[in-house]
Design a protein that fits this description.
Strand order of the largest sheet: 7-6-5-8-9-10
Oligomer: single chain
Distance between the termini: 27 Å
Structural class: alpha/beta
Number of helices: 12
Number of domains: 2
Order of helices and strands: HEHEHEHEHEHEHEHEHEEHHH
Radius of gyration: 22 Å
């Protein structure tokens, strides 16, 4: 573990934990995009201990590759978290592919977040033992002091000038793989059809200035809100009409869980790993990644029908209810206890 992550506004607080822990590195890094680094002391810490030690780790970092190799030489068992899908961008370098295949084949268990991720593991080893564990979020952090206040949404929308707008929300990094230009182009199509559409972008990243310029060039109403979390993010979700994640490459996308949990109709590309959470057209909507026309058509259908948005939102909320932290814990412990 690291003591902090550069991309997120939180710090680890072990005071609430009921288990012993140790931070192996105090250096911050980017979650999901860790720089390749081999830390000898970290490797020693991970591989020390009795033969009964069970390691559970990711697989896309040099330190973990060496840990897996060391574990096998010492006769110890390890399991891997698997969050990627076949749609994710891969380097294609033979050494990486050979290494991943070796790690999956020698793992005791592969803990996959969903069925698409399980298929990814089996593309490397058809005989791999895979447990689908889900990928939950803590929805309680979006709670309000007055959850039954029916006028809250109207007041929030009025405060942002959205009372008469069709508001499409996005939450996440402003980075190339998120393909926000496709979303902005689709919103521009709605505007040309005389629909009062607004795109609300929550998050930050190196593409913000270019996306602002692109939005102005197309004449699309795009509002860049910056980073939000907790109740502020919950209120943003409450203010939206639709949530959209247009990524060209997305291993999961926990913001999809959040939007569905808040009862929002959710539109994602067919490259989003969490699309297995819902049934297309019934509890969510899927469009071909990068297809501006297809996305615009789906958003227009939602803009024209409050009834459709209500039905999809209710179905989405129902579909994601099983994705709880308790269920995730039970699935992980169940797999690791096996045998």
């Amino acid at each position: 573990m690291r003591g902090s992550e550069a991309s997120y506004a939180f710090k680890i607080d072990p005071s609430t934990w009921r288990f012993r822990s140790r931070v192996l590195s105090t250096r911050p890094g980017e979650a999901g995009f860790a720089r390749v680094s081999i830390l000898p002391r970290t490797l020693q810490s991970l591989t020390s201990g009795p033969r009964t030690t069970r390691l559970v780790m990711p697989y896309a970092d040099a330190t973990f590759v060496l840990t897996a190799l060391s574990s096998r030489l010492q006769g110890k068992r390890y399991s891997l978290f698997a969050a990627s899908t076949a749609d994710d961008a891969r380097s294609g370098a033979p050494i990486y592919e050979i290494t991943k295949r070796w790690m999956f084949r020698n793992a005791d268990w592969c803990l996959a977040t969903g069925p698409l991720q399980a298929a990814y593991v089996r593309s490397y080893d058809p005989r791999a033992r895979v447990a689908i564990i889900g990928n939950p979020v803590d929805m309680s952090r979006f709670a309000t002091m007055h959850p039954n206040d029916g006028g809250r949404r109207d007041r929030l929308r009025a405060a942002r000038g959205w009372s008469d707008r069709f508001v499409i929300g996005y939450v996440g990094r402003l980075s190339p793989e998120k393909d926000l230009r496709t979303l902005i182009r689709a919103a521009a199509t709605l505007t040309r059809e005389n629909m009062r559409a607004t795109v609300a972008i929550v998050g930050s990243g190196r593409l913000e200035s270019s996306l602002r310029a692109f939005s102005a060039e197309l004449g699309t109403d795009v509002q860049f809100i910056g980073f939000l979390d907790g109740l502020a993010l919950g209120d943003l979700y409450r203010s939206l009409d639709v949530f959209c994640l247009p990524s060209r490459s997305e291993a999961w996308g926990l913001v999809v869980n959040e939007a569905m949990g808040m009862g929002l109709p959710t539109v994602v590309s067919d490259r989003v790993g969490s699309r297995s959470l819902f049934e297309d057209g019934k509890s969510g909507i899927i469009f071909p990644a990068g297809d501006v026309f297809a996305l615009a058509q789906r958003l227009m259908g939602l803009a024209r029908s409050v009834e459709l948005r209500t039905e999809l939102g209710a179905a989405a909320q129902n579909a994601v209810q099983a994705q709880t932290i308790s269920a995730w814990t039970a699935a992980v412990v169940g797999a690791l206890r096996d045998g």
